[in-house]
Fold each of these.
Amino acid sequence: MSAPDEIAYRSGEALFSFRRTGAMILRHWYVLRGSVPRILELAYWPAVQMLTWGFMTEFLVRQTTYVAQAFGVLLAAVLLWDVLFRSQLGVSISFLEEVWARNLGHLFISPLRPLEMVAALIAMSGLRTIIGVLPAVVMAALFFGFNLASLGLPLVAFLILLGVMGWAVGLAISGLIMRYGQSVETLAWALTFALAPVSGIYYPVSVLPAWLQPLSWALPSSYVFEGMREILRDHRVPYGLMWQGGLLDALYLVAGILAFLGFFRAARERGLLLKTGE
C-alpha cells in the first residue's frame, strides 16, 4: 500500500488507514443517500426553527403593545405547545416501545383487539403528558410567577383540544410505522414540529402569508393558541374558536383511529407485524 494511504506502521500493520476510513465514510454515505427521510431530517430542524422564529420576529417588528404582554403569552404558549407535543409523543413512544421490543406479533396473537390497543395508547399518552408537563407548569409558577390556571375554565378545553389532536397525529404515525417500518420512525419526533410554524403558537395566524393561513385554520391547535391570546389580552372567552377547534378535533381523532386500523389491517395481511423491531 502507498504511504499516503496508511500511516504509523507497527509490526507490519498500519495504525491508521485512510482507505478503511474512506470505506466507512462511503458506507454511511450510501445509507444516507438511499434514505430520503434521513436526508430530509438533516434540513428539517433548521428550516422549522427558521420559519417559527422568522414569523415571530416579523410579528414583533410590527407590534409594540404586544411586547408588554409577551411574557405571559409566550409562557402560556410554550406550556400549551408542550401538551400537544407530549400527547402525540406519548402515543408514538408507547407504540415504538412495542416495536423496539419486537412485541407486536406477540400482542396481536393474543386476544388483544386493535381498538383496545388504541385506547391503551391514548391512556398512556395522557399519563406521560401529565408527568412531562406538570413539572414545567409548577416551575413557571415558582420561578416566573406565571400561573397557567389564570386562563380559567377554558384551560380545560384547551388541554383537551391539544391532547386529542396529539392523539390523532400519534395514532396516524404509529400506523405508518406499523405499515412501512422503522424507516419512518423519525416522524414520531418530526411531524408535530412541522405544524409548529403554522399553528400560531407564538404569534397570530394573521402574521402568516395569506396562502398559508387556510392551512393554519385547518389545524385545531391554531384555534387554541388564538383563543389563549384572546383570553390573556382581552379577558374574553372565545367560545366560537373553541367550538370550531373541537369540531376539527373530532374529525382528526376519527381520521387518526381509522388510519391506525387501516395500516394495521395492511400490515397484518402482509405479515409485517412479525418483522418490526431493532
Amino acid sequence: MAEDILGQTEERMIKSVEATGRELLRIRTGKATPNLLDGIKVDYYTNMVPINQAATISVPEPRLIVVQPWEKSMIPEITKQIVKSDLGLNPIAEGNIIRLPIPPLNEERRRDLVKIVKNLIEDGKIAVRNIRRDANDLLKKAEKAKEISEDDHHRTAEKVQDLTDKFVEKLDDMLQAKEQEIMEV
C-alpha cells in the first residue's frame, strides 16, 4: 500500500514538472525555436490542429522561424492564427512559406519575462507540494484503516518529502537555466 502511494506520487510529480517545462518552452527568449508555435492551432479542413500538423517548421537562422504549409491555401489561416496569438510575431508570407523574424528583446521585456518564468516555476512548486499533501493524507488514512503500520507511514512520508525536495530542485534548475537564456543578449 505504502509503495503504491509512493509510486503514484512520483508519477504525478514527474507529470507536473514536465507540464511546467512545456509551459517554459512557449516563452519567447529572443531566439528562434519551433516550440514557440506549439500553442497555436489552425483550422485544417474544419479541424483545429496544432500548426506542426499542417506545416513544416524550421529554424534556418537564430532569429528566424520558417513555416512551410503543406498546402498553399493554408498560408492565410496560419498567418491569421500567428497574429492572433500573444507571441508578438509579425508573419511575412512569401510565396509558399511564412517567415517569422524574431525581434531582439529589450532589457525591460527581459525582466518581465523573468518574472513570468518565476511565476510559472512557483506554480510548478505549488503543484508538487499539493501532490505531497495528497500523498501524506493518503498515508494517514491508510494508517488509520490499519492498512499500513505507523513505521511504514513515517518511512514513506520521509520518502515523499525526499521526492518533493528532488522535484523542487529540478524546478529551481529549470528556472536558473531559463533565466540565463532570457537575460543572454
Amino acid sequence: MATTADFRNGLCIEMNGEVWSITEFLHVKPGKGAAFVRTKLKNLRNGRQLEHTFPSGVKIDLARVERRPYQFLYKEGADTYHFMHSETFEQLAIEESLISNSGLLKEGQDVEIMYHVDSDSPLTCELPAFVDLLITYTEPGVKGDTATNALKRAIVETGAEVMVPLFIEEGEKIKVDTRTNRYSERVK
C-alpha cells in the first residue's frame, strides 16, 4: 500500500482491476478545501489514457511489475512479434498492440518488456528512447527550398515513414526518437 505522497512518473498502480501507469501528476492545495492530486494515467493493457483525481493521502494499491530485457527476433504474420530473453534465452511471442511504435523495431533490437508479476503476463514492450535507422528511400531535396524548417518523407529500413529535413539523403543513417516517431539527428 502506498499513498498519494508516493506518486511519481512511471509508478504502476492497480485501480478498478486494471494496471495503470502514472504519466503525469500534480499536487494541488487550493485555498479553500482539502488538497488533492490530479493525475494522467495510462492503461498498460490497452494503452487508454485517463485523467483521475485522488484525494490527498488516500491509500493506493501498487502493481508489482518488473522490466525484463529482450531482443527482437522476427515478425510472424500480420501482428505477432517474437522476442528472446537476453539472459535465459527463453522465447516469447506477443501481439503488436503491446508494442510502443512497432514500426521502428528492427531485427536484433534490444527492448524492455514490462511484466505484471502476479499474473506473469506481458503488459508493454518499450523500445529504447532513440534508434539508429538507415534511410532506404527519400526524394532528393530541392535547392533553394531551405528558408524554413521544411521536412520531407523518408522510408527507413524497417518500412516506417519518418519526416526528415531536406538535406537528408538516401543511404544515410539517422537517429529517430521512438516516443514521438520524429527525426533527431544524423548518425556519422
